[in-house]
Every structure is written in structure tokens, then in C-alpha cells.
Write a structure and sequence with these properties.
Blueprint: H1 2-27, E1 31-36, H2 39-42, H3 44-59, E2 63-68, H4 71-80, E3 87-88, E4 91-92, H5 96-120, E5 125-129, E6 136-140, E7 149-154, H6 157-164, E8 168-172, E9 174-176, E10 182-184, H7 187-197, E11 202-207, E12 225-226, H8 231-236, H9 244-256, E13 261-266, H10 272-278, E14 285-287
Parallel strand pairs: 1-2, 1-11, 2-8, 5-8, 11-13, 12-14
Antiparallel strand pairs: 3-4, 6-7, 9-10, 13-14
Length: about 290
């Protein structure tokens, strides 16, 4: 009996690999940008699952770029340092002192923790920030938010150099202006812009919801596919509202800049990256 079960398990594994083969072939040597944050970044088991997925994608020949945020870790560090956090329009109000903490947490602790975890999973990773190689140049968004940057230029040469050398670039979203002042950048915005500049095959934004839903409280109303031309009407109909609007706008921006497919996937589901890329059904919402 045990032998039969083992044979069935092995046959199932073989079927999974055979099913994944055409998807692997489609993505081999193509760039895939993953924006990583939310609950998948806080929960240690989920974090390990995401990193193992990224390593697997890299090992089968996909050029993976990981762009990360770190809002909760920034807030925790600020709290420990007794520096108040304040948000306006969903963006952190960032004075010079807060910016120093943001840079330390994002480009330091969070970035290097992810690099280390990827390497523990068998990958080759290189930690970068938007400051390195003047990758991301910004200007001040407005006076209200302080050191929050609006992207003016992305130079992807550092990223492609890392990819060509066989590394997974892990990018923290801080950048600088022409005078060298350092700014915090919204991670969704930065990831979408990087994906567009790299002309990525796919851009996957990992979130805390299962995708775009007609009824946010009912996962069965998930909209599996959206065309960019449909977005204004979905906003007018109240289907895209609140905090989803900037996320969807980032997806739209990536498509307009040349990314072929954009996905919003549920980072709370283990191995959601593999399910989205290597199955017909996928798991979230795809934008075309």
C-alpha cells in the first residue's frame, strides 16, 4: 500500500512539472518584477515561501527583480525611537529625521534580511537601493509630505548588470534628487516604473487581498482579467475605490510603459507567485 501511495505521489509530481513546462518556457530569460510587501512580509512562514518561489523562478532561468517596501518595520522602528508617524493621502509624512530612519530600515535591515533569506534558500541575491548607481532620481512630491519623492528618471543599468551576473536584484525604494537629497518612494509606484523601464514580461504586485473584486467583502466576485481601457469605468462604477485606486493606477502605468502582463496577487496565499505564473487559472487579477 505504501509503495502505491509513493508511486501516486511521484506521478502527481511529474504531472505538475509537465504542466508547468510551457509556462517555464514562456518566461525563460524574460524579466519578471515582483513587488513584495504587506502580510506576506510580516508573517515569517509566508516570507520563507515567497523567497523560495523567487529562488525557484530564478533557477529555471527567469530574470526576477524583487522590489520591496517595509512600512510596518519603519513604523515599529519610529515608535521605538519615539518619533511619531503621520500619513496624508496614504503616504507617510517624512521629515529629515524620519527619512534617516526610513533609509536605515529599508536599505539596511529589511533589504539585507531579504537578501540573506534568498541566499539561505539557495539563490544568489544582491541588495540594492534606488540610490545605487543613481538608479532612481526623484524630485520632491510636495511640501506637505516632506522627503517623499516623485520619480523623474530610472536608470536600469545597475539592475541589468546584476541580472546578467546571475543575481536576483533586491531593491529598496529610496532615491535621491539631483542635489543628493534622499527621499522615500511609494513601493508600488517604484516597482511599476522599474518594470516598465525594464520592459518586463510580467509585473506582480503582492497585496493583502485576493485581487480586484466587484464586492470587496466577497472573494467569489474576483475579476480575473481587466483591460486598461476598462479602468475608468470601473472607477466610475465604484468597483475600484479608496486604497485600490493608486495600486490600479500603478498597474495601468506599467502596462502603458511596455509591461506585457500585470497581476495583483494575494500575498497571504503560500506560493501565490508560482500559481499565478505557472497555471492557466492563476490566482488574482490580470491586467492587459
Amino acid at each position: 500500500m505504501e509503495g502505491n501511495v509513493m508511486e501516486m505521489d511521484n506521478a502527481l509530481r511529474a504531472q505538475v512539472l509537465i504542466h508547468a513546462l510551457p509556462f517555464i518556457r514562456k518566461y525563460t530569460d524574460k524579466v519578471v518584477v515582483v513587488k513584495y510587501g504587506g502580510n506576506a512580509m510580516i508573517n515569517e512562514e509566508l516570507k520563507k515561501a515567497v523567497m523560495s518561489d523567487v529562488v525557484l523562478l530564478s533557477l529555471v532561468g527567469i530574470r526576477v527583480v524583487l522590489v520591496h517596501g517595509g512600512g510596518p518595520e519603519i513604523s515599529d522602528t519610529l515608535k521605538k525611537m519615539q518619533i511619531p508617524s503621520r500619513f496624508e493621502g496614504g503616504l507617510r509624512v517624512t521629515d529629515r529625521e524620519t527619512m534617516g530612519v526610513v533609509q536605515m530600515v529599508l536599505a539596511g535591515k529589511v533589504n539585507k534580511d531579504l537578501v540573506n533569506l534568498l541566499q539561505c534558500q539557495g539563490g544568489r541575491a544582491m541588495g540594492l537601493s534606488g540610490i545605487d548607481g543613481r538608479m532612481i532620481t526623484v524630485r520632491r512630491l510636495d511640501e506637505v509630505h516632506g522627503y517623499v519623492g516623485e520619480i523623474t528618471r530610472v536608470d536600469t543599468s545597475v539592475i541589468t548588470d546584476a541580472l546578467d551576473a546571475g543575481y536576483i536584484p533586491v531593491i529598496s525604494t529610496v532615491g535621491c534628487d539631483e542635489e543628493g537629497n534622499v527621499y522615500n518612494i511609494n513601493a508600488d509606484t517604484a516597482a511599476a516604473r522599474i518594470a516598465g523601464c525594464l520592459k518586463a514580461e510580467s509585473f506582480l504586485s503582492m497585496t493583502d487581498i485576493c485581487g480586484l473584486m466587484r464586492d470587496p467583502s466577497d472573494p467569489s466576485t474576483l475579476i480575473p482579467q481587466v483591460y486598461v481601457s476598462d479602468i475608468p469605468q470601473l472607477i466610475a462604477d465604484g468597483i475600484i475605490t479608496g486604497g485600490m485606486i493608486p495600486k490600479i493606477e500603478c498597474c495601468q502605468e506599467a502596462i502603458r510603459r511596455g509591461v506585457k502582463r500585470v497581476f495583483i496577487v494575494d500575498g497571504r496565499v503560500p506560493h501565490s507567485l508560482l500559481i499565478e505564473l505557472f497555471t492557466d487559472e492563476g490566482i488574482g487579477t490580470m491586467f492587459l
